[in-house]
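ugh ok fine here u go
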Amino acid sequence: MKISFSGSAFEDIESIKEYYVKLEVPEIGENFVVAIFKHIETLTEHPDIGRIVPEFNENHIRELIHPPFRIVYLRGQTVVQIIRVWRSERLLKLSEDKT
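structure:
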């Protein structure tokens, strides 16, 4: 299974790094980002490992929980598209085009 990232997912990851830089602990942000990418890599072999996102209850909209973040993705036939990487407590709203 191939992995792709939406522009918003890349922005989310950059925001995570920037947040910890502002807190003057950039290594924590970097560690989170590395761990998040490793978690995402598991989707290449196990695309259904994430739970169905409760806000949508659609089989193809799934999420991995990587505390304190949730990694939301679309499970396609041959591609897993990472949509958002947000703090777990945020409510989820996807744009109409889901990218």
